[in-house]
# Entry
Amino acid sequence: MAIDTKLTSQKKDFPAWYNEVVKLADLIDYGPVKGTIIFKPYGYAIWENIQKIFNEKIVNDGVENAYFPVFIPESFLKKEKEHVEGFSPELAVVTHAGGEKLDEPVVVRPTSETIMYDAFSRWISSYRDLPLRINQWCNVVRWELRTKPFLRTTEFLWQEGHSVFETKEEADKEMLKRLNNYRDFYEKVLAIPVFTGKKSEIEKFAGALYSTSCEALLKDGKALQAATSHNLGQNFAKPFNIQYESKEGKREYVWQSSWGISTRSIGSIILTHGDDKGLVLPPAIAPVQVIIIPICKDNKEKEAVLKAIKEITSKFGTDIRIKVDDRENLSPGWKFNEWEIKGVPLRIEVGPKDVKGKSITVVRRDENEKKQIKSNKLDVKNLLKEIQSNLFKEALRFKEENTHKVTDFKAFQKDLEEKKGFYLAPWCEDSKCELEIKEKTKATTRVIPFDIDKPQKGEKCFHCGKEAKAFVYFAKAY
Ligand SMILES: [Zn+2]
# Structure
């Protein structure tokens, strides 16, 4: 592998920058089937860190992991009308297997509500079986026409959590709790501030009573649906006959919620923090947090430098992910470039002069400035903490700078061409109005935020002039 290509700058061609950086940082390769990607070890390690942190969070909170088959009978998908309508254009269907035509085609899972809930109908019989919280980490397949690594791929990886309760209130509470889990995860782990709120009727999950989501604002000004949490009501409980016997001895249908975060999250990291030098990874999920580059002319120097490195790193503690790049035949400059593109948060250069003077050169990826630090003053843990919080602060500043209020549709149309970002507008919540806005501007509703009061009486929808029922964020989205 050789990195000799210079990245296109973000300003010059943002989509080109993205396509180059995912390859040059060695995150992915393309699969032979259109829209599929291969997660290379460095890209997969980011996902493994995401999994590890989020999994621990939910498992400590009473969620149990399980695994369901990738093949789903086609008839299952058809049981919930909105669900099948929403997913059928994207389904991959197996009609032949084992050299024969199948009696009933099977669908490669696009999401697992139907196959899980068929099982849940057998697992649940009494209120004592509730609540039930099952999660699975798996791949799903949605046959997409326009694809982009991580953001939209024919096959992607995710977790899908499925919770079952006696009452709607419990399902509501769970939905909000998971939404907040995702928001915390984005903000604290991925250093990405998000908008949260309710989805419109058109944008909700196919089959849900209603949906909520976290939405990220990316550097190119576009929105990314970053994680979702749905209240499914009894929409699946009825066709799948998931009933329980209540304390009063009555047969009742359950209430359900489902919630998920996918490998899209990796795309959001790249598109939030990346710069013209490449990726910038938040320390919390960086596969390598500290890259150490020995700088030496000959073997004698190398020996002394490597010895010094051993001494320095022995004080870091065991939970820091360190790599010493002592590959030969590669210049330090070449190595700097490679680890910059790969977004490693902290680089430490150690040369013979440093060994004698007991000082080392440290470069933070978020600042790109060389600093001399006495090796006994080096506090790596704290530096990584600072980088993590600085990345969040910078992303928050960008989010605030690019969030606008709008009450006039003409002004909105004009602004959307010139100023990137999210636009908060008073809106009537009518689906027809929403589709017209999308047709005219390519912007879609992202979320109706929970933390902003409803419009005052008499306030009008910024597009159609009918009574405004809510403030909603509009943006162009991936
Ligand atoms: Zn309207």
Notes: The chain has a mean pLDDT of 95. The pocket of zinc ion is lined by residues 427-428, 430, 433, 461, 463-464, 466 (CB under 6 Å).
